[in-house]
Write a structure and sequence with these properties.
- The chain is globular.
- Helix content is 30%, strand content 28%.
- The protein is an alpha+beta fold and 325 residues long.
- The chain has ten helices and 14 strands.
- The N and C termini lie far apart (47 Å).
- 42% of the residues are buried.
- The protein has helices spanning 3-12, 20-26, 31-38, 67-77, 92-101, 152-166, 216-220, 229-232, 239-260, 266-272; strands spanning 48-51, 55-58, 82-89, 108-115, 133-142, 172-175, 179-182, 185-196, 202-211, 279-283, 290-297, 303-307, 311-315, 319-322.
- The structure holds biotin.
Length: 325
């Protein structure tokens, strides 16, 4: 996207009509250049109307993140959290992994209004909509070794579900290994990438994508059951309020994890796990799918399942889905 596209969309963010001439003039650009820049709006998941004599209008008002307001809240919650908000980036996690290698401190957070190549688990892409998603990553350094970070992504899931619940997404639950769901529909995805020495220290980049208010255009590009904060909370928080809470909740969870590992949140995870005791279909990364029942989660985040023919199995990576009996 071009810088001009974001500048123009900020002018249009209130959802009212604005004349193309006024916008172009205020940005020091020609009408034709503005027109070209706004042609990209549908790619960002936006409906933009152009009415002769009235100008441009967005289908819905657009809320950009208020970086200063979020940073003020974070300063009170945890002084180590340093937030940067950018309009566009390929992937906040890819950028933070680079910064981690360059020595960036623990607590560095990067949020993007738009990710052009958002990454999901298992090589999938992560779909977002401008103003309709939260996409951010948090860099955290641990004294404990990379070999002792098992269960970290599950602890992160608990932190995200808790923050969503605090803002009225009352039925937020987790799905092993690290989705956050409401009524079996995904509301947030988590990608945790770690590196470092086996015995420590280590570093994690925690990437979180939240479906805030997905419009039709974004929904068309998503191939799994999803829901969003707007559909689940009676009085939805602003994107900025939610981002501040998520980051504060994550910082507290990551601190707990440094001290106690996954055992700090294992009980909470169990009680939030929507698939506990359920009949599921297990889809391993390479092997053939099979049926099982979810039994428990181990202290290292491994999922324990019972099968009819192979007894108890421990899963460190796989996908599970509900099985209808
Ligand atoms: C998944 O459910 O597959 C994980 C999705 C993780 C998406 C987030 S969005 C912010 C961060 N940057 C990325 O490229 N991915 C994560």
């Amino acid at each position: 996207m071009s810088v001009l596209t974001f500048q123009a969309l900020r002018r249009l963010a209130d959802g009212r009509f604005h004349s193309g001439e006024d916008i172009a003039k205020s940005l020091g650009r020609s009408r034709a250049t503005l027109n070209e820049a706004l042609k990209l709006a549908p790619e960002l998941g936006l409906d933009l109307f152009s009415v002769p004599g009235k100008g441009y209008r967005l289908g819905e008002p657009l809320e950009f993140l208020d970086a200063d307001a979020v940073s003020r809240t974070l300063a009170a919650a945890d002084a180590r959290l340093r937030l940067e908000v950018v309009d566009e980036v390929d992937s906040t996690s890819s950028r933070l992994l680079e910064r981690a290698a360059g020595g960036a401190p623990s607590g560095t957070c990067l949020a993007a209004e738009w990710q052009s190549s958002g990454r999901g688990r298992r090589g999938r892409s992560w779909v977002c909509a401008l103003g309709g998603s939260l996409t951010f990553s948090l860099l955290w350094r641990f004294e404990r070794g990379a070999g002792h970070l098992g269960g970290l992504s599950l602890a992160v899931g608990v932190a995200v579900a808790r923050a969503l619940r605090e803002w009225g997404v009352l039925r937020a639950q987790v799905k092993w290994p690290n989705d956050v769901i409401v009524d079996f529909r995904k509301i947030a995805g988590i990608l945790v990438e770690t590196s470092g020495e086996m015995q420590g220290p280590s570093v994690a980049v925690v990437g979180v994508g939240v479906n805030y208010r997905l419009g039709e255009r974004a929904l068309e590009r998503i191939d799994q059951p999803v829901t969003d904060v707007w559909g689940c909370a009676a009085t939805p928080p602003s994107r900025s309020e939610l981002l501040a809470s998520l980051l504060a909740s994550l910082a507290a969870a990551l601190d707990d994890f440094e001290r106690q590992g996954f055992s700090a949140s294992r009980d909470a995870w169990r009680s939030l796990h929507a698939y506990q005791g359920r009949a599921v279909r297990v889809v391993p990364a390479r092997d053939a799918p099979y049926d099982a029942e979810v039994v428990d989660v181990d202290p290292d985040g491994t999922l324990v399942v019972a099968t009819a023919d192979r007894g108890t199995l421990r899963l460190s990576s796989a996908e599970i889905s509900l099985r209808t009996r």
